[in-house]
Amino acid sequence: MKAPSRVSRPKSAPVMPESVAFGPAAHNAWQLQGDKVSFVRRSPKPRPVLIADAAPQAVEIDLARSALIVVDMQNDFCHPEGWFAQKGLGTQAARKPIPVLQALLPAWRQAGGAVVWLNWGIRADKRNLAPTVQFKGKRTAEGVGYADHSPIDHGPSLVQGSWGAKVIDALAVSTADITVHKHRLSGFWDNELDTLLRQQGITTLLFAGINTDRCVFSTLQDANFLGYDCVLLQDACSTPSPAYVTQGVLYIVELLHGFVGSAASLMRALPASPRSSSSSKPRES
Question: Which of 204, 178, 174, 209 is nearest to 191 (CA)?
Answer without folding.
Answer: 178
